[in-house]
Design a protein that fits this description.
alpha/beta; single chain; 24% strand; binds guanosine-5'-triphosphate; 9 strands; 9 helices; Rossmann fold; GMP Synthetase, Chain A, domain 3; binds magnesium ion; 300 residues
């Protein structure tokens, strides 16, 4: 119960939009923790990622989703389904656009994302990159689309997020505490670790290789209270990619591993010994079996 005796408020709020517009950056900013990985590449997020924020008398469960795009593989279909599922049984919807870019496909996406009876908020993100004068015509463009509010924000600097929270809290219905206080994500430690490795691969590798990367944590062992040993496989599509991921005398894999290790150490608060193996799984993005072992199957 809230301290003033009012009913506890809670709700699920999904975050959707085209690839690379800043959905995961927003999730992390709203939750105040690194819940989702972020990269300059489109299609970074591949499944629903839950981030939880608690306040006095309320709880919001945010659901980050993959960028909306036309699927070309079974993995793409899974991502597409993750977005569609995230439009079900929610209490409010956040649709994000990148205000610093003009994307003709975006107009239709923004228009089509209406969920019956649920408050919808349209965010024009990345305003730190936009001259204020350019914002007004953008806001006007979306004015007839039925959004409850159109809010210019920067997920990166935090500008506008306070106002967004006020809107969300105003829209929250009475409801239960879905997750215990103190819990900030529904992902397992292994899932987060796999993502932190993939994040570094996304940063380090070029062109199409990152899209063919998958990471599976095989084992985690607490060797001592101050040291955790982690073994993980890095999947790729092709033999030629394996060589690039490993790099000359293993330099690329060492770089990915040591950056990932730093972020895993921050997460676990212990030292980490991270052992990565690169494996070729031809066409894994179309293999049910491989998708399942990487966690890209039915949402939990
Ligand atoms: N300047 C600026 N950059 C931002 C902002 N929000 C996100 N970005 C950058 O935009 C890029 C994509 O951010 P993500 O949060 O990964 O975007 P996403 O929508 O989750 O992308 P997908 O998961 O691929 O669909 C990253 O390089 C972010 O740093 C912002 O408000 N301002
Ligand atoms: Mg994302």
């Amino acid at each position: 119960m809230a301290s003033d005796g009012a009913a506890f408020k809670s709700g699920f709020v999904s975050i959707v939009g085209r690839p690379n517009v800043g959905k995961s950056t927003l999730l992390n900013a709203l939750v105040g923790e690194k819940v989702a990985i972020i990269s300059p590449r489109p299609q970074t997020t591949r499944n629903q990622i839950i981030g939880i924020r608690n306040g006095e008398g309320w709880q919001i469960v945010f659901v980050d989703t993959p960028g909306i795009h036309k699927p070309r593989t079974r993995l793409g279909e899974f991502m597409d389904k993750s977005v569609k599922d995230a439009l079900q049984a929610i209490d409010a919807l956040i649709v994000i656009t990148d205000a610093s870019r003009s994307d003709p496909a975006e107009r239709e996406t923004v228009k089509s994302l209406a969920v019956g009876g649920v408050p919808r908020f349209l965010l024009l993100n990345k305003i730190d990159l936009v001259h204020p004068q350019q914002l007004l015509p953008r806001i006007a463009q979306y004015a007839g689309d039925g959004y409850d509010a159109i809010l210019p924000v920067s997920a990166k600097t935090g500008e506008g997020l306070e106002l967004l929270m006020q809107h969300l809290l105003g829209a929250l219905p009475a409801g239960p505490r879905y997750y215990p206080e103190g819990q900030w994500t529904a992902q397992t430690e292994r899932q987060i670790i796999a993502e932190l490795v993939r994040e570094q691969a996304l940063f380090a590798l070029q062109e199409e290789i990152p899209h063919g990367i998958g990471v599976e944590v095989l084992s985690m062992k607490e060797v001592s209270p101050t040291l955790t040993e982690i073994f993980a496989d890095v999947y790729c599509d092709k033999d030629s990619h394996k060589g690039i991921i490993i790099g000359r005398q293993g330099a690329m894999l060492r770089r990915i591993g040591s950056k990932a290790r730093e972020s895993i150490e921050r997460l676990l608060n212990t030292q980490v010994n991270l052992k990565l193996w690169v494996k070729v799984r031809p066409d894994w993005r179309n293999s049910r079996q491989d998708l399942k072992s990487l966690g890209y199957s039915e949402q939990v």
